[in-house]
Amino acid sequence: MLIHSSILSDKGLKTPFTCSTKFFLATAVTISTALLAQPLSAQENGDVEEIIVTSSRVPIPLRQIGTSVSVLDELEIEARGNLQLSDVLRQMPAVGSTSNGGIGKNTTVRIRGEEGFRTLTYIDGMRLQDPSAIQIGTDFSQLLTDGIGRIEILRGPQGLAYGADAGGVININTRGIDDGLSVSLDGQTGRFGTSQLSGNVAGRSGAVDYFLSVTDYETDGFNTRDIDNVSPDDDGYENTSFHGRVGFDLTDEWRIDLVHRDVDGANEFDGCFDSATFNTVHDCTNDYDLSATKVGLEYNGESFTHLLSYTTTESDRQNFTLGLPAFGGNGEQERIEYIGSATNLPGFDLVFGADQQEDVNNGRGRDNTGVFLEYLSDFSDNLFFTAGVRHDDNDDFGTNTSYRLSGAYLIDMGSGTLKFKTALGTGFRAPSPFEIEYNRGSSAFPPASLVSLQQEESEGWEAGIEYFSGDLRLEAVYFDQDVENAIFFDLAAFSGYLQDVGTSTSQGIELTAEIPVNDSFRVTSNYTYNDTERPNGDQRLRRPENLFNLGLSYTGMNGRLNVNGFYRYQADSIDSPGPLDDFGVFDLTASFEINDSFRIYGRLENAFDEEYEEVIAYNSAERAAYVGVNFRFGE
To answer: For residues 91 and 72, is the Cβ–Cβ distance under 8 A?
Structure first.
């Protein structure tokens, strides 16, 4: 019942593990086996009743869901200490991230090896897309972690409930709201001339609740590229972000919400071109502005829920070379979305919705209209399955049908629960207006100018097993997904946008463990093996075959002291024109609560001073230390 509130592939798996990866995998398996070998009575009794919204767009207990979802709460985000959201996301199962030289630079987040522009992102129910971007994706280089209270990551093609561009979904919620007024002020500073000041105000009074967050971030950065070697300079970044939401309870069932977000970013980088001489220069900057607003009307009744929302997004970006305008883009997006649910039906629930979206990029617009319906079983306490279908109508590419099937089966093991799960889903992505116009414009030439771009189509399935008991959770998932006609930019001749004829694949295994060793010590770990191929058999660029994350958390002195270590490792990744070196990075964070209102904290990033590249010819940050203070007070 819905809760109302706001096996390997036939293709076979390649396993070119490095020695280090074999060690990490063996360690994870050993720990997991040891835990399962313990008497179940030693584990905490009770099922996890964490509620997930992202899978079917309505709240459902995690234990009933057949899809794969990862969750981070406010304390876990705070423990990691990272300022850029992508650095938090990359520590989750099957999530990879690359950056062209650190915070504020071009950043891509990939889920299960798919393109970053297929990673759909929501924040407080608002679709966070950048209509001025080439593929109208999420600009993760501009997303900071301040004010974020919860993250849900849904893996695999998700065209059913989300429509186009959803090769995986990241659902972000800002911090929760309690009765009364609470205020949080935060300041930190550290290496590379980095400083951040932020403030959050939240509260509830009668029928009104609100949350406001303001962040001002600045860093001198570091030299992002080795080719800037004559008079190398630092490449800095500035970001001022505002995010606010206000809710009004009109009655016990009816509610209205307003969300607004503004981002103003300024970035320095290397390697642009002088339009007069066509020489490569390193005095390059870009400015970025985003303004997005959502208003929603919600009804929560005993048998039905309805949510109608309208979102408008405007963004502008402008690049400068030697201080003179080089090129830029502007975009607008308008989206009307309805999501409803019906419960108390005989043995099943229904989720249904419709949406209409218009994207305008540099004056060229396109509409897409979609409707969907999903069946959720409600006739058993241990067997759950869903089936849904979606129909889309795109101005440029006609109609498209997406579907998803999922199932979960629970076995009570006394002190814990064993869950078997599986899901099959599809999705699609139409070429963006920019991609289409670029190939038609004067900048394109053969072979790209001769290509008529077609929409991409994706399909993926997964099968997994989970064990959970109290705070203990173990998970193993196999996934296999394909993309037909993947679009890419011609990096060989720079002729424009080309399309792979055939199927690009991504398959692999995800292992996850969350282990509360005792009241003070907790271990989290995940490992992903991801084998990706283009139709010609080549490995897909910047997709590590091996990703490993290990987190160690200690809480002492009655919860006042928190120490956390996070290690991430990636291996067997390639870029153009060759392979990337394997690397591992260790971060250390610590915080101490002086009293209920005052907390001091610090973090050491890249503690072992690993020298590495995520993108060939782009540098990454050396070892850096940061310290900060936080004041919290309220009723």
So the answer is: no
Strand residue runs (E) in 124-176: 126-127, 148-155, 168-174
Within its chain, how far is the Cα of 191 from the centroid? Answer: 27
Exposure string over 85-119, b if 16+ CB within 10 A, otherwise e? bbbbbbbbbbbbbbbbbbbbbbbbbbbbbbbbbbb
Work out the widest C-alpha separation in the chain, in whole angstroms: 75
Domains with residue ranges and CATH for the chain: 19-634 (2.40.170.20)
Q: Using one digit for the tens of pLDDT, what is the confidence trace for 152-178?
A: 999 988 889 898 777 899 999 999 998
Q: Are 427 and 166 in contact (CB under 8 A)?
A: yes
**The amino acid at 627:** V
Return the number of other C-beta atoms located less than 10 Å from residue 137's C-beta: 21
Secondary structure (3-state) at 308: strand
User: What angle (nearest 5°) sits at the alpha carbon of residue 483, between those of residues 479 and 486?
Assistant: 145
Quote the Cα angle for 600-605-608, to 5°.
Answer: 130
pLDDT value, residue 11? 37
Q: Tens digits of per-residue pLDDT, 265-292?
A: 999 999 998 888 889 999 999 999 999 9
pLDDT digits (tens, 9 = 90+) for 293-330: 999 999 999 999 999 999 999 999 999 999 999 989 89
- How do strand 51-52 and strand 120-123 relate by DSSP bridges? unpaired
Please work out, in degrees rounded to the nearest 5, the angle formed at the alpha carbon of residue 316 by the alpha carbons of 326 and 368: 120
Residue among 65, 64, 69, 2 nearest 382 (CA):
64
Residues 87-101 pLDDT 10s? 999 999 999 999 999
What does DSSP assign to residue 64? G
**Which DSSP string corresponds to 575-627?**
-SSSEEPPEEEEEEEEEEESSSSEEEEEEEESTT-----SSTTB-----EEEE
Interatomic CA distance for residues 302 and 341, integer angstroms: 11
Report d(CA 134, CA 112) in Å as an integer.
Answer: 22
Bridge-based pairing state of the strands 573-574 and 579-580: antiparallel
Q: How far is CA 481 from CA 84, 311, 511, in A?
A: 29, 31, 18
Say which residue the tokens 């001769």 belong to: 450
Is the pLDDT reported for residue 23 higher than 50? no
At 3, list the tokens: 């809760």
